[in-house]
Specification:
Nucleotidyltransferase, domain 5; five-stranded mixed β-sheet; 5 helices
Length: about 180
């Protein structure tokens, strides 16, 4: 069983479209269908396909993160997460379906034309999430400040155009809560 199967996954939040390209330049490409995006179904798919040969998975990096990559690596299969911007596309190829995307990923993975991205471990991913949450909080704070300033401008109070100590005291006295302006 030296045969290698190149499995292309088109991953979405609820489902995964699966295609398999067999080893060799002219090996057949099969669309296996869509499966639910759950760890149990992914493990069942891998268990079913491993009977045919060695498995090499690939899928596009996206909103679903790297959970599938970690699961497939734990099961002992190679998995590449590829950058969507680095996937070769023909100029007139505009039709995008789950079936075509998974088949194209399988074929390109077999030919070695895909560029894999670095997959962070769980600690790095948690730090990224924390940094993004901090940026989101600072943007919300900036919008709140701008909203307060706009409200004071609307009320024609020209002395309070920016957030000042007086404004902090005023907001604190009205709402009885500390403000972090």
């Amino acid at each position: 069983m030296d045969k290698t199967l190149f499995v292309g996954l088109d991953v979405h939040k609820a489902s995964i479209s699966v295609s398999v390209a067999e080893d060799g330049r002219n090996g057949p490409v099969r669309f296996l269908g869509a499966i639910p995006n759950t760890p149990a179904d992914i493990a069942k798919l891998a268990k079913r396909l491993v009977k045919e040969g060695r498995l090499e998975f690939c899928y596009e990096a996206g909103c679903c993160g790297y959970v599938i990559h970690r699961q497939l690596e734990e099961l002992g299969h190679a998995c590449a997460v590829v950058a969507p911007s680095r996937i070769p596309r023909k100029p007139g190829d505009r039709v995008k379906t789950d079936r075509r995307d998974s088949q194209k990923l399988a074929i390109l993975h077999r030919s070695g034309d895909l560029t894999a991205v670095w997959v962070p471990d769980e600690t790095h991913e948690a730090i990224r999430d924390l940094a993004r949450a901090r940026i989101d909080a600072s943007i919300q704070l900036m919008r709140a400040r701008q909203g307060c300033s706009a409200n004071f401008r609307y009320q024609r109070n020209e002395t309070l155009l920016s957030i000042t100590r007086f404004m902090r005291r005023e907001l604190h006295s009205r709402f009885r809560a500390p403000f972090c302006f």
